[in-house]
Amino acid sequence: MWRQSQPLEATEEQKQQLAVWIRSGVTQQRVAFRCHIIIQAIAGKSNNSIAKQLDTSRPTVILWRNRFKSEGPTSLLKDLPRGQGIPPLSKRSIEKIIKTTLQTKPKDATHWSCRSMARECGVSHFLQFSGFGRLII
Length: 137
Fold this sequence. Notes:
Elements: H1 12-23, H2 29-42, H3 47-54, H4 58-71, H5 91-103, H6 114-121, E1 128-131, E2 133-136
Antiparallel strand pairs: 1-2
Helix pairs in contact: 1-2, 2-3, 2-4, 3-4, 5-6
């Protein structure tokens, strides 16, 4: 069984800042949502009741309680960094793919498939790039 969480401590200034962010029409929804979690935690509600009321998970409530406790209100404004995405194709690779598509034909086929084009041009067939709409290689 989980133990009852203690009310979160916050200064009057911090409470006012949270209220301002919630009422503001330009605050991102995810920030306002986090503020609602913290306001209820300050009021002494349990993690489970906060999670049920806001239709989220208990670990989410605990995450934002801990971040607020250690870093204050500004921690609600920033997301944790995410992993790197797939690097975009170079202009040289894009030019080679377009030239190959328009000026050559594959051996033993009538048109290029994404896999045959990828082998021909030395790129992964999972790569995507934009420039002429959305071209998937």
